[in-house]
Design goal:
Blueprint (H helix, E strand, L loop, with lengths): L4 E8 L3 H12 L4 E4 L8 H4 L3 E2 L10 H10 L2 H12 L10 E4 L3 H16 L5 E3 L1 H8 L10 E4 L3 E2 L2 H14 L3 E3 L4 E7 L2 E7 L4 E8 L5 H6 L7 E12 L8 E4 L2 E5 L4 E5 L13 H14 L8 E12 L5 E4 L6 E5 L5 H16 L20
Parallel strand pairs: 1-2, 1-11, 2-8, 4-13, 11-18
Antiparallel strand pairs: 3-7, 4-6, 5-6, 9-10, 10-11, 12-15, 12-16, 13-14, 14-15, 17-18
EC number: 1.4.3.19
Pathway: Cofactor biosynthesis; thiamine diphosphate biosynthesis
InterPro entries: FAD-dep_OxRdtase (IPR006076), FAD/NAD-bd_sf (IPR036188), Gly_oxidase_ThiO (IPR012727)
Length: about 375
C-alpha cells in the first residue's frame, strides 16, 4: 500500500555524491532522506577506481583543479570522523601516484605539468626511467620515458568509503531507502515540493538530484536542459595476495591500483554508448593488453571480474552544483565524471552549505547550474 512521506531534504541518488551530502546534512541535524532506485552505490560508485587524483587527473590549473585539491585535503579528517562514528575504514592508501610517460610528447607534457603544479604549491617530483626502476623494480614496469610522482594523490576503496558514509549518516539520523525509484516530480505553484515513487509520494522542502548519468534525463520532465550525459567506463579486477607495487600507476587510458584487500583494479575506458553499461570483450581486451604492456607481472594474476559503469559527463567537464534557476526547491549535484569519489568530500560540504543558507566555502560560480541549464 502506498503512503506519503515527508522530509526536510530529499536526495535522489544513493551513490557516493548523494550519500556524502546526506552525511554532511546529518552532521548539521538536517532531516534527510536518500532514495536509490537500485542498491546504494550500485552504479558508477561501484565501478570506479577510488583515486583521489587531484593532480594526476588535471591537465591544467583552473576551477576543477582547485576544487579537487580542496576536496583531497578533507579526506584525512573525514576518515577519522567515520572511524569515530561508525568504526568503518575507507581504506585510505597514501603511497602516491606515478604518472608514467610512454613517449616523448607525454614526457614533455608531464614536465610542463610539474612546473605549474609546483607553482600552485603542490608537490610533484620527476623520476627518470632508471630512477623509477630502482623504486618499482625492473620486473614490475616496462621501459618508460620517466614519470611524474605525485605523493599527495591517494586512493580509497569505493565501497568501503561508501559504507562508512552510509553507516555514519544513519547513526546521525539520516534515512535511506533502496529499491525506490523516482517516477516524477511533485510540483506546486511552479516549485518542486517532492517526487513520486511507486511506493507513494515523498514531500520535501528541498530536492537534490544526485542522480549521476541519469540527471539529464530527469530534467527533461521539467523542460530543463541539464548538460549531463552518460560516458561508459570499463575496468577489471585481478586477484593478488601481494600486489606488485603499493603505488598507483597511471598512464594514457590505463591506471593500475593495488587495493588493501589484495585485489588490483585496472581501468578504464571512456565510451559514448548511451545508457548501455554492459562490459564487452573488445574494450576489455584492449585494456588488458595496455595494462600488461605497462606492468608485465599482471599477466599471471587471476582474473576476478569485469566492471562497467556510466560516469556522469558534462559539456564543459565541470560538475553542476547548486540550485536550479526557475525551479524553486530543486538542486543538482552531478556531472563529476571521473572524479566522483575525489570530489565527494567537498561536494557534500558545499551542498550542505547551500541547503542551509550558509556562505559556501568555495566559489561555486564555475559550477553553477545557471551557467549551462536552459529552462
Amino acid at each position: 500500500m502506498s503512503h506519503s512521506t515527508e522530509t526536510d531534504v530529499l536526495i535522489v541518488g544513493g551513490g557516493v555524491i548523494g550519500v556524502a551530502i546526506a552525511y554532511e546534512l546529518a552532521k548539521a541535524s538536517v532531516q534527510t532522506l536518500v532514495i536509490e532506485k537500485d542498491n546504494l552505490g550500485s552504479q558508477s560508485t561501484r565501478a570506479g577506481a577510488g583515486m583521489l587524483g587531484a593532480q594526476v587527473e588535471m591537465m591544467a590549473a583552473g576551477p576543477m583543479y582547485e576544487l579537487g585539491v580542496t576536496s583531497r585535503a578533507l579526506f584525512p579528517t573525514l576518515r577519522e570522523e567515520l572511524l569515530e562514528i561508525c568504526g568503518c575504514d575507507m581504506e585510505l592508501q597514501t603511497p602516491g601516484i606515478f604518472r608514467v610517460a610512454v613517449n616523448e610528447v607525454d614526457r614533455q607534457e608531464l614536465l610542463t605539468r610539474q612546473v605549474w603544479q609546483r607553482s600552485a604549491g603542490q608537490r610533484a617530483e620527476w623520476y627518470e626511467d632508471d630512477e623509477l626502476r630502482r623504486i618499482l623494480g625492473d620486473d614490475v614496469i616496462s621501459a618508460t620515458y620517466g614519470a611524474l610522482y605525485l605523493p599527495d594523490d591517494h586512493q580509497v576503496r569505493n565501497m568501503a568509503f561508501l559504507l562508512g558514509l552510509v553507516a555514519s549518516a544513519k547513526a546521525l539520523g539520516a534515512q535511506f531507502r533502496e529499491q525506490t525509484s523516482m517516477s516524477g516530480f511533485l510540483t506546486e505553484n511552479g516549485a518542486i515540493v517532492g517526487v513520486h515513487t511507486l511506493n507513494g509520494p515523498i514531500r520535501a522542502n528541498r530536492v537534490v538530484l544526485a542522480t549521476g548519468a541519469w540527471t539529464g534525463l530527469l530534467g527533461r520532465e521539467l523542460n530543463l536542459d541539464i548538460p549531463i550525459h552518460p560516458v561508459k567506463g570499463q575496468s577489471l579486477l585481478l586477484n593478488s595476495y601481494a600486489p606488485p607495487t603499493p603505488y598507483t600507476i597511471f598512464t594514457h587510458g590505463c591506471y593500475i591500483l593495488p587495493k588493501r584487500n589484495g585485489q588490483v583494479y585496472v581501468g578504464a575506458t571512456e565510451e559514448e554508448s548511451g545508457f548501455d553499461s554492459r562490459p564487452n570483450l573488445g574494450a576489455l581486451a584492449q585494456l588488458s593488453n595496455q595494462a600488461v604492456g605497462l606492468m608485465p607481472s599482471l599477466a599471471s594474476l587471476p582474473f576476478v571480474e569485469p566492471i562497467a559503469g556510466l560516469r556522469p559527463g558534462s559539456r564543459d567537464g565541470l560538475p553542476v552544483l547548486g540550485g536550479v534557476p526557475g525551479a524553486p526547491g530543486l538542486y543538482i549535484a552531478s556531472g563529476h565524471f571521473r572524479n566522483g569519489v575525489l570530489l565527494s568530500a567537498i561536494t557534500g560540504k558545499v551542498m550542505r552549505e547551500v541547503l542551509t543558507g550558509q556562505q559556501t566555502s568555495v566559489d561555486l560560480t564555475p559550477f553553477s547550474v545557471a551557467r549551462s541549464v536552459n529552462t
